[in-house]
What we know:
Layout: H1 2-7, E1 10-12, E2 18-20, E3 34-35, H2 46-52, H3 69-89, E4 96-99, H4 102-116, E5 123-127, H5 132-143, E6 147-151, H6 161-167, E7 172-176, H7 190-200, E8 203-207, E9 226-230, E10 241-245, H8 274-312, E11 316-318, E12 329-334, H9 339-345, E13 349-350, E14 352-353, E15 355-358, E16 361-364, H10 366-370, H11 375-379, E17 381-385, H12 392-411, H13 414-420
Parallel strand pairs: 3-13, 5-6, 5-7, 7-8, 8-9
Antiparallel strand pairs: 1-2, 4-10, 9-10, 11-12, 12-17, 14-17, 15-16
Helix pairs in contact: 2-8, 3-8, 4-5, 8-12
Amino acid sequence: MSNELKENGMEMTDNGVVIAESREPLPAGVKLPIYMDNHATTQMDPRVLEAMLPFFGNVFGNAASRNHAFGWEAEKAVETAREQVAKLIGCTPKEIIFTSGATESNNLAIKGIAEMYRERGNHIITQVTEHKAVLDTCKKLEKAGYRVTYLPVQANGLIDIEDLRRAMDETTILVSIMYANNEIGVIQPVQEIGKLCHEKGVIFHTDGVQAVGKVPVNVQTDNIDVLSMTAHKIYGPKGVGALYVRRRNPRVQISEQINGGGHERGMRSGTLNVPGIVGLGAACEIAGTEMSVEAERLRSLRDYLKAKFEGALDYVHVNGDMQHHLPGNLNVSFVYVEGESLLMGINDIAVSSGSACTSATLEPSYVLKALGLGDDVAHSSIRFGLGRFNNKAEVDYVSDKLIDVVSKLRELSPLYEMVKEGIDLTKIEWAAH
Length: 433
């Protein structure tokens, strides 16, 4: 197998990824494949792993065992992590509920609030570009008799606060708007949204997965009542997350969705994942200490990557408002290039395309469609997610490779050739097949 790959200019890495062999020596600081998909997940920080390791060995107690030292030690570790998480987002430790990740946190928040406040009303407001963990949960509640309003977004990906104001009525019990988008990186006006919700007596939940640890998040000044987060997006372990639930001004109550044992102050039953929780706490502590410096470095790399694309290629469309944006996110449409072909040409770089495989068909991203992009432009989009372990040499390699592949693919594109000749594609009547 390895000989066949080499004959075709390919090689397989230690982790089983097949990549194109480089014909020239790689620059210093570059090792293939390159990972730039840090909105999907992040590599665990070695310091986080170091903090977790004892809890896979001799420190194995159940945090709910109150009768002996093994349980006490586990409980102490959990409470330390609770303090670390709370400090990062500006709340008290008692307001942190540990979960298995952000999908569970979103489900617990939305379903738990809907159930608890059912007698007050049945109206929930969210937006069309939310993560599926929120959208699918809302669709489930619609089947149970709840009314859900899905706010549109503007061309820059931000909601119009006046749309939210108009959507509210006397039956509205919950607004769920994500802090930052996982595809286009735009940061919503969370503080304004929370302020409006409090004026109307409505609970405000935000999916903070992409924002926590990347940009300053403070649930008090941001007027957030409930916030979902996860460890694996901030260089921690997979399978553990948290839900912040406000205890005062206003006190938010949530109906438990998992029964059995009354753990986490009755809101989330189940034996606590002590090693994972320790990892989440360590990741939060590191983020709190290094966030400002890291954000500035990633913003600089992101802007450098963007400038290289725009300097070398035409018809490059950046998606999402760049003024209100995550530091490490860049979502770019390389118009007149098919995204999947582009990905095949850069198979030594891990990024995400603007398409999703559903039911064996290639569908354009619903987030990009919500911005008003056509299918062709959405399909030509690539999401770059820069993270803690990326460097400038990798950005140079990735940008040079993308520019080369896009240029070659456009040479094969009759549409690009027609546009360069000044033909208006919108006025062409295409023959049906």
